[in-house]
From TrEMBL:
<feature type="active site" description="Charge relay system">
    <location>
        <position position="57"/>
    </location>
</feature>
<dbReference type="GO" id="GO:0019628">
    <property type="term" value="P:urate catabolic process"/>
</dbReference>
<dbReference type="Pfam" id="PF01014">
    <property type="entry name" value="Uricase"/>
</dbReference>
<comment type="function">
    <text>Catalyzes the oxidation of uric acid to 5-hydroxyisourate, which is further processed to form (S)-allantoin.</text>
</comment>
<feature type="binding site">
    <location>
        <position position="57"/>
    </location>
    <ligand>
        <name>O2</name>
    </ligand>
</feature>
<feature type="binding site">
    <location>
        <position position="244"/>
    </location>
    <ligand>
        <name>5-hydroxyisourate</name>
    </ligand>
</feature>
<keyword id="KW-0560">Oxidoreductase</keyword>
<dbReference type="GO" id="GO:0006144">
    <property type="term" value="P:purine nucleobase metabolic process"/>
</dbReference>
<dbReference type="InterPro" id="IPR019842">
    <property type="entry name" value="Uricase_CS"/>
</dbReference>
<feature type="binding site">
    <location>
        <position position="57"/>
    </location>
    <ligand>
        <name>urate</name>
    </ligand>
</feature>
<feature type="binding site">
    <location>
        <position position="175"/>
    </location>
    <ligand>
        <name>urate</name>
    </ligand>
</feature>
<dbReference type="InterPro" id="IPR002042">
    <property type="entry name" value="Uricase"/>
</dbReference>
<comment type="pathway">
    <text>Purine metabolism; urate degradation; (S)-allantoin from urate: step 1/3.</text>
</comment>
<feature type="binding site">
    <location>
        <position position="244"/>
    </location>
    <ligand>
        <name>urate</name>
    </ligand>
</feature>
<feature type="binding site">
    <location>
        <position position="57"/>
    </location>
    <ligand>
        <name>5-hydroxyisourate</name>
    </ligand>
</feature>
<feature type="active site" description="Charge relay system">
    <location>
        <position position="246"/>
    </location>
</feature>
<feature type="binding site">
    <location>
        <position position="218"/>
    </location>
    <ligand>
        <name>urate</name>
    </ligand>
</feature>
Length: 296
């Protein structure tokens, strides 16, 4: 029985890059966290420490910064595709790459009609994301968002579940439903207006969360994924990870007050974690597009 080196990848994680376009006085900015991972003929570095195919993670980091200067960053999907193709096309022994990008959402400070030219505010943790996988001459693009906080103050119920001797949860037809959405969707091809597609999928999922009368967070998850797929032929599947941010009704009887679903304890943990894949029944699966992705 022998011991062999298994699947591996390596790169620089969370390169924080901030870029300003100063072409005119109305600046545009990009605030990104970029992670690079390279795959390929890397047995030698693991087995003997032979670094001849080991493009340093420091060089990968420098490449990210240089690419941001050499051409406009543009949409995160295009930037990730450029980086991934560069590494696979130029680094000896490297046959695959995974580029992860999270984009922080700054907005112009609302001064005047169109917002300030060079001052910005960020009031949310929400990030737009992409995960690009280059596998030889194939490319997979999985985009999404994370930490999008949403809440419904009515229109959510939970009842009809199995009960056993450990059950204490009361059935309810009136509860708060809150979650922090992490969603990723896989594109069928790279011929996409990335920004427009992102905005529309995000809006569709938000609208569906709002308008679905929810009997379970699982039902909301499916409806959100389905609505995105119905409206967007360019995507093959949607994966969602939804922590159920429980809001417990506070018993105020101790001081003689009736609590008519008005005052809750917003617990941060433990939380239910509802996860699922919503897909088309006629598309080919692409496990490589998802391999080692956080959350999925
Ligand atoms: O929407 C829900 N789904 C569950 O599976 C679950 N389990 C639970 O305790 N509360 C809820 N709510």
């Amino acid at each position: 029985m022998g011991i062999v080196m298994g699947r591996n990848q390596y790169g620089k994680a969370e390169v924080r890059i901030f870029a300003v376009n100063r072409d005119n006085p109305r600046h545009t900015i990009k605030d990104l966290s970029v992670s690079t991972s390279l795959r390929g003929d890397l047995d030698a570095v693991h087995l003997t420490g032979d670094n001849s195919h080991c493009l340093p993670t420091d060089t990968q980091k420098n490449t990210v910064f240089a690419f941001a200067k050499e051409a406009p960053i543009g949409e995160i999907e295009s930037f990730a595709l450029r980086l991934g193709k560069h590494f696979v096309g130029t680094a000896d022994g490297i046959t695959g790459a995974r580029i992860l990008i999270d984009e922080y959402s700054w907005r112009r400070i609302p001064v005047g009609g169109t917002g300030h030219d060079h001052s910005f505010a960020r009031s949310t943790d929400e990030k737009r994301t992409t995960a690009v996988t280059i596998d030889g001459d194939r490319a997979h693009v999985v985009s999404g968002l994370k930490d999008l906080m949403v809440l419904k103050s009515t229109g959510s119920e939970f009842w009809g579940y199995p009960k056993d001797k450990y059950t204490t949860l009361a059935e309810t037809n009136e509860r708060i439903l809150a979650t922090a959405v992490t969603a990723r969707w896989r594109y069928r091809h790279p011929d996409v207006d990335w920004g427009k597609s992102f905005e529309s999928i995000r809006a569709t999922m938000l609208e569906t969360f709002a308008t679905t009368h929810s009997l379970a967070l699982q039902q909301s998850l499916y409806e959100m994924g389905k609505a995105a797929l119905d409206k967007h032929p360019e995507i093959a599947e949607v994966r969602l990870s939804l922590p159920n941010k429980h809001h417990f009704l506070v018993d105020l009887e101790f001081c003689g007050l009736e609590n008519n679903n008005e005052v809750f304890f917003a617990a941060d943990r433990p939380y239910g974690l509802i996860e699922g894949v919503v897909t088309r029944d006629d598309v080919e699966e692409a496990p490589q597009a998802w391999y080692s992705l956080p959350e999925f």
